[in-house]
Amino acid sequence: MQISPEEASLRSREICTLAPVMPVLVIREAAAAGPLAEALISGGLPALEVTLRTPAALEAIRDMAQVPGFVVGAGTLITPDDAVAAKEAGAEFGVSPGATDALLDACEEIGLPLLPGAATASEAMRLLARGYRMQKFFPAEASGGSPALKAIGAPLPQISFCPTGGITPGNVQGYLDLPNVVCAGGSWIAPQELVSAGDWSAIRTLARAAAQLPA
After folding, report:
1. Residue 175's pLDDT band (boundaries 50, 70, 90)?
2. Which pLDDT band holds residue 1 (cuts at 50, 70, 90)?
């Protein structure tokens, strides 16, 4: 079932409003996916992005998609094949570091809502012209941080963003305070050392703190 850019943006925005922070995960062991999902959702973060950077990513998405009340997205979508594989694994939305016509076409064709990446006003305007009003600002810190995103928002108030890339507990509030930010993506919620140790309690605590951030 196809999806329009406008419909994709509406769905992406709905997902981004579920919590002030969206965990961005690099999962190396698929066996961790289920317990990790349950720790995050019990901590108040019901949506996340699993990046397609490891061989375990698609299996992890399949497992997490089975957790009731959880919304699983696939990140680092680069090619149309990535989009198809993510959708088949059960991803409810996709996230890309940038945007190509081929990727946008593929996601629209298969009905996968995409949160496309933009780092400049020109990239954001190009996506807006196609109908994408909900975008990812990436790499956020390397692209000027919250001051840059604030500046982009002045002439383009109709675009909302989920910034990712270099977001930490120390700078996340600066992004969430911006009127053009719906949520922020961060990897600090589930650091690899805690996932490897199976310390779901610690991850739950980090998730709970992130879920309580003012947005």
Report:
1. very high
2. confident
Q: Is 50 helix (H, G, I), strand (E, B) or coil?
A: strand
Q: Which of 109, 136, 141, 193 is catalytic?
A: 136
Q: How far is CA 38 from CA 11, 25, 47, 113, 186, in A?
A: 23, 14, 11, 24, 18
Residues 6+ apart with CB under 8 A from 62: 89, 90
For 128, the token pair is: 């807006």
Tell the residue number behind the tokens 């994408």, with chain if given. Answer: 132
Q: Kindly report the pTM of this predicted structure.
A: 0.96
Determine contact, residues 150/119, Cβ cutoff 8 Å. no
pLDDT, tens digit, 9 for 90 and up, residues 81-122? 999 999 999 999 999 999 999 999 999 999 999 999 999 999
The residue length of the chain stands at: 215
CA angle in degrees (0–180, nearest 5) for 206-83-4? 100
Tokens 């809502």 correspond to 113
**Mean pLDDT, rounded, for 58-86:** 97
From 49, 87, 92, 108, active-site residue: 49
49 is a catalytic site residue: yes
